[in-house]
């Protein structure tokens, strides 16, 4: 149901490249013109644009490697803690190369501490990470997670607008309350 008889898996590039239900493969000398692949689909403006800009189709280019990204998988957003310490963990990945460093913050990015980061089990595999946070006093906190790749490129606090809303790799942020 999800790709038989044959599915491409193109790690590191957008999901749209991992085409399903293949019955034949053509090598073509032109850009994909199949259903859902034309126009501005899976494309970004080739230069930064102001929010709401009408970008002509000729100024779009196809998205290739995905930017560095991470997720906090534990704890869930909104967790109420009964003690001032927390084990945090998650995954990180990047379209090309690998994730080199993982940082977490509990003070809105004022300070960052390095988390322990595993090597990928194989090229393109998600990398597991884990860290420990001690909270200075009871109250409301957010945990922010930031991955940095082996070229020194990090997840940003915020991304520039683009017409289709692609490539949003800003920090995953979760809230916790400490009693
Ligand atoms: N034949 C075919 N393959 C396709 C698509 C499609 O519309 N048709 N959508 C693509 C897109 S945009 C994505 S994100 C992934 C989703 O795959 P998943 O169901 O394994 O998450 O399939 C890709 N492969
Ligand atoms: Mo997609």
Automatic annotation (TrEMBL):
Q: What keywords are annotated for this sequence in UniProt?
A: Metal-binding, Molybdenum, Oxidoreductase
Instruction: Answer whether the UniProt record assigns the keyword Ion transport to this protein.
Output: no
Moybdenum cofactor oxidoreductase dimerisation domain: from which residue to which, for each copy?
62-178
Report TM segments.
none
Q: Where is each Oxidoreductase molybdopterin-binding domain found?
A: 2-34
Example of a GO MF term: heme binding
Pfam (any one): Oxidored_molyb
**Record keywords: Chloroplast included?**
no
Q: Which cofactor does it need?
A: Mo-molybdopterin
Q: Which domain of life is it from?
A: Bacteria
Q: Name one GO biological process term.
A: sulfur compound metabolic process
What's the name of the protein?
A: Moybdenum cofactor oxidoreductase dimerisation domain-containing protein
Q: From which source organism is this entry? A: Iodidimonas nitroreducens
């Amino acid at each position: 149901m999800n790709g038989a008889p044959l599915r491409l898996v193109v790690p590191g590039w957008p999901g749209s490249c991992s085409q399903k239900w293949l019955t034949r493969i053509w090598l073509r000398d032109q850009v994909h013109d199949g259903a859902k692949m034309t126009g501005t689909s899976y494309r970004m403006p080739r230069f930064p644009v102001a929010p709401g800009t009408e970008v002509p189709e000729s100024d779009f280019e196809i998205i290739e490697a995905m930017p560095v990204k991470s997720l906090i998988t534990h704890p869930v957003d909104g967790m109420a803690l009964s003690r001032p310490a927390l084990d945090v963990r998650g995954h990180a990945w990047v379209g090309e190369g690998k994730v080199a460093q993982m940082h977490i913050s509990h003070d809105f990015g004022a300070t960052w501490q390095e988390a322990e980061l595993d090597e990928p089990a194989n090229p393109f595999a998600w990398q597991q990470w884990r860290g420990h946070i001690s909270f200075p006093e009871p109250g409301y906190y957010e945990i922010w997670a930031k991955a940095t790749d082996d070229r020194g490129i990090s997840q940003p606090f915020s991304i520039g607008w683009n017409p289709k809303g692609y490539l949003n790799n800003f920090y995953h942020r979760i809230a916790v309350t400490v009693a």
